[in-house]
């Protein structure tokens, strides 16, 4: 009898356990597919026109596709709705840790944990880069890494790759700005593990959530290196990544340079080389990777030649600290995240600077899938983009409004300081930018 009771109890518990697990899985499936469905349909969170839902991109998380298939922005692309969670067919839905991690961080956390706090990545540079020499005397760099609720190992690999692959004489410091993260492992545990880099690391914690733009400004205000280098908190730098950037800035203090962004796959975390591309955008103000012209990769330097770029991607770049300040840093009136990369790029070109991508400097970036608060992000991107439209686009702002008429009546705060800055810096017109830097962005009544 006792045996029967025990058996019944055992079977009951087992059935209950299986049911609970199944229920949990169903909940996640429902959650994920609902999420994908919503984003595919273009949620009406803001009750604005359909196209307002689209510009959720600062660029660096888009995968630069192989050279031949890099597309120019076209209408189809702008109509496309990017699903927030692109779950791979091979994704193991029964691995609850993986599903959870994916929803929390936007990439494969199980693999990230298994890779741990540091790893070696393949040298993806063109062979010709290995023979390049850089001056012995280079300016020093402060590396600024802001993070909000980042996965511990991905954040740590960002720091340890910089520590491993940067000569210490040019590395002034790494400034970590914790933008009010909530996760426990980013508190005491992070402090504890960063101890081994003591002397080179400054960790600043903001008192409220500032958003990427203001968090970067906080980091920059604490920097003492001659050059500021901004990185995301899920990057891994490659061999000799910093020297080309610093050498270019040493030659010309108004030169702003970006590494070529390699892709760390969000699903496998494999480090993959990117083709040589340049940054572009369309009249929806969406960032795109674009083809480089063949003459730019021909000639003696071949594919190692610096690429003139109309805009920078999400914001992995190096710039002389004094020049960053002189040029007006970032627009402090911008909120949270988005649009700041286009604004800074236009300001650089129109106000006497230059922006180049250096293919011999490589930094990997996890193209993580955004699962943040959509409404907040969309609002911020629209607000920030409108600020840049009204400050920088002159009569060409009509090209934007033509395509998105509802933007005309949306508030964008006070821009008088930024308009004044433009005057003080004696910046050129947007027409000059179009003619000289980015003639491919044609003004028309079409849809580009
Ligand atoms: N970030 C931040 N505060 C925010 C939002 C983002 O500090 O409110 C950090 C984030 O952790 C990351 C960097 O800013 O290190 C860039 O954000 P993200 O990777 O989401 O941008 P993307 O790569 O998509 O352009
Ligand atoms: Mn990123």
TrEMBL record:
Do you know which InterPro entries this protein is assigned to? Answer: GalNAc-T, Glyco_trans_2-like, Nucleotide-diphossugar_trans
The terms under GO molecular function for this entry are:
transferase activity
User: According to its UniProt record, which cofactors does this protein need?
Assistant: Mn(2+)
Residue span(s) of domain Glycosyltransferase 2-like: 142-317
* Region of interest (Disordered), ranges: 57-80
Q: Name one GO biological process term.
A: spermatid development
Q: Which GO terms describe its cellular component?
A: Golgi apparatus
Q: How does it sit in the membrane?
A: Single-pass type II membrane protein
Q: Which CDD domains match?
A: pp-GalNAc-T (cd02510)
Location within or outside the cell: Endomembrane system
Which keywords describe this protein according to UniProt?
Disulfide bond, Glycoprotein, Manganese, Membrane, Signal-anchor, Transferase, Transmembrane, Transmembrane helix
Q: State the SUPFAM superfamilies in the record.
A: Nucleotide-diphospho-sugar transferases
User: So where does this one cross the membrane?
Assistant: 7-30
Specify residue ranges for compositional bias: Polar residues: 57-72
The record's family statement is:
Belongs to the glycosyltransferase 2 family. GalNAc-T subfamily.
Annotated protein name in UniProt: Polypeptide N-acetylgalactosaminyltransferase like 5
């Amino acid at each position: 009898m006792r045996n029967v009771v025990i058996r019944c109890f055992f079977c009951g518990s087992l059935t209950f356990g299986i049911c609970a697990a199944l229920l949990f899985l169903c909940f996640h499936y429902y959650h994920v597919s609902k999420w994908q469905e919503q984003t595919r349909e273009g949620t009406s969170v803001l009750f604005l026109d359909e196209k307002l839902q689209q510009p959720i991109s600062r660029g660096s998380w888009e995968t630069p596709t192989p050279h031949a298939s890099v597309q120019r922005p076209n209408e189809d692309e702008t109509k496309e709705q990017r699903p927030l969670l692109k779950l791979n067919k091979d994704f193991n839905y029964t691995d609850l840790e993986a599903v959870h991690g994916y929803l929390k961080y936007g990439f494969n956390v199980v693999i990230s944990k298994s890779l741990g706090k540091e790893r070696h990545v393949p040298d993806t540079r063109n062979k010709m880069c290995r023979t390049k020499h850089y001056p012995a005397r280079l300016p020093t760099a402060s590396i600024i890494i802001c993070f909000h609720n980042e996965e511990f190992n991905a954040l740590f690999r960002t720091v340890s790759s910089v520590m491993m692959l940067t000569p210490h004489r040019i590395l002034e410091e790494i400034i970590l700005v914790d933008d009010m993260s909530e996760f426990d492992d980013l508190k005491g545990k992070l402090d504890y593990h960063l101890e081994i880099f003591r002397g080179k690391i400054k960790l600043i914690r903001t008192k409220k959530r500032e958003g990427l733009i203001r968090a970067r400004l906080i980091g920059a205000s604490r920097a003492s290196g001659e050059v500021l280098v901004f990185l995301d908190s899920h990057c891994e730098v490659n061999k000799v990544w910093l020297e080309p950037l610093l050498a270019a800035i040493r030659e010309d203090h108004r030169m702003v340079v970006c590494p070529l962004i390699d892709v760390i796959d969000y699903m496998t975390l494999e480090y993959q080389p990117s083709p040589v591309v340049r940054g572009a955008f369309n009249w929806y103000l969406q960032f795109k990777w674009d083809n480089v012209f063949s003459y730019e990769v021909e000639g003696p330097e071949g594919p190692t030649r610096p690429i003139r770029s109309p805009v920078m991607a999400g914001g992995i770049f190096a710039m002389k600290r004094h020049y960053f300040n002189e040029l007006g840093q970032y627009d402090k009136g911008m909120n949270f995240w988005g649009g700041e990369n286009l604004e800074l790029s236009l300001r650089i070109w129109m106000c006497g600077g230059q922006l180049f991508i250096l293919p011999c400097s490589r930094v990997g970036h996890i193209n993580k899938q955004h699962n943040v608060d959509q409404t907040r992000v969309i609002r911020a991107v629209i607000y920030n983009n409108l600020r840049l439209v009204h400050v920088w686009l002159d009569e060409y702002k009509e090209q934007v409004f033509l395509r998105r008429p509802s933007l005309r009546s949306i508030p964008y705060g006070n821009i008088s300081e930024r308009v004044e800055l433009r005057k003080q810096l004696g910046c050129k017109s947007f027409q000059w930018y179009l003619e000289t830097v980015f003639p491919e962005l044609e003004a028309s009544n079409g849809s580009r």
